[in-house]
Write a structure and sequence with these properties.
By secondary structure, the protein is mostly helical. The chain is 82% helix and 0% strand. It is built from 6 helices and no strands. α2 packs antiparallel against α3 and α3 packs parallel to α6.
Length: 117
Amino acid sequence: MDNRIFISELLQDLPLWTAIFMSLYPKLQNKNIFFISLIIGIFASLYIWYLMKKGEYTLRIFLKNPSEIFPFMIYSFLILIFLVILTYKGILYMPSVIWFYILITSIVEFFFVKKDL
C-alpha cells in the first residue's frame, strides 16, 4: 500500500482513537480536541475518496499485497470491538458522532468498492 494511502487510513481513524482515549480517561475529555481530530479524519476520508474516484486506490490495489491486508483487517476489527464495548458500557465519548462518522465513511467507501467490482 502506498505510504500516502496508509497515512490517510490512519488519519481517518484519528477521531475513533481520540474518542476511545477520551472514554477511558474522562478527565482529559475536550470537545475542541475531539472536533479537531474529527476534522482531520474527515479530510483524510475526503482524500481517500478522491483517490478512489481517480482509480489510484481500488479494491485490486488493496488486495494486491495480502501481507498488508491481514494486519489491516485485524486492526480495523479490533478498533470496532473497542468502540462496541465502550458503547455497550455507555462510556464512549460522543457515541452518536462516532457511529455516524463510521456509517457515512463506510457507506461511501462501499459504493466506491462496489463500483470497482
